[in-house]
Design brief:
Blueprint: H1 2-16, H2 28-80, H3 98-103, E1 133-135, E2 156-158
Length: about 170
């Protein structure tokens, strides 16, 4: 009779998943191995996430530079057409500031109309402000002087952020 009870209890323990002579739970070695694997995986994802964030900022910087440069070209084209009221013989028709493209101008003969070229000055994603480096026609194409260098307005813009892009180029030369 004792043997039958022992067999019945052993069968019950095996069916319920408990081990007959050992406590259930993880060993210290199993926990250490699991934590080590998790730490290795986490350490591998940190550089990937960092590069993704940096690549996103670079993409936004390229977009913002393109938007400003297209606005400068549109401002200059309007001026050459005579829409801005400037004398295209004595002026290169480039905007005096980025704010001037946001403010816009009233075309001659159209008092209630304002022609704008930017809704707002785009934010530099690396410096987190709207201060851009600006070049005029008189400046060197890759100068980083910091402001409009000539009397004829802004010909080009660049970021004031220091550093190199993921492709190895300087941000200020984009």
């Amino acid at each position: 009779m004792l043997n039958n009870r022992w067999l019945a209890n052993a069968g019950h323990r095996l069916l319920n998943g408990s081990k007959p002579d050992r406590e259930s739970g993880f060993t210290l070695l199993e926990l250490i191995i699991t934590l080590t694997v998790i730490a290795i995986l986490a350490a591998g994802t940190v550089p990937v996430v960092h590069n993704m964030i940096r690549r996103q900022k670079e993409l936004e910087l390229r977009r913002n530079l393109r938007e400003i440069r297209q606005a400068i070209d549109a401002y200059q084209a309007s001026c050459v057409k005579g829409e801005a009221g400037f004398d295209k013989e004595t002026d290169d028709c480039y905007p005096p500031s980025l704010e001037a493209m946001v403010k816009g101008f009233n075309p001659p003969g159209k008092v209630n109309e304002t022609k704008r070229f930017l809704r707002r000055v785009p934010l530099d994603p690396f410096t987190q402000n709207t201060q851009w480096g600006m070049r005029s026609m008189e400046d060197d194409p890759y100068s980083t002087g910091g402001g409009p260098g000539g009397k004829n307005g802004i010909f080009d813009v660049y970021t004031t952020a220091q550093g190199k892009a993921l492709d190895g180029s300087d941000y200020s030369k984009w």
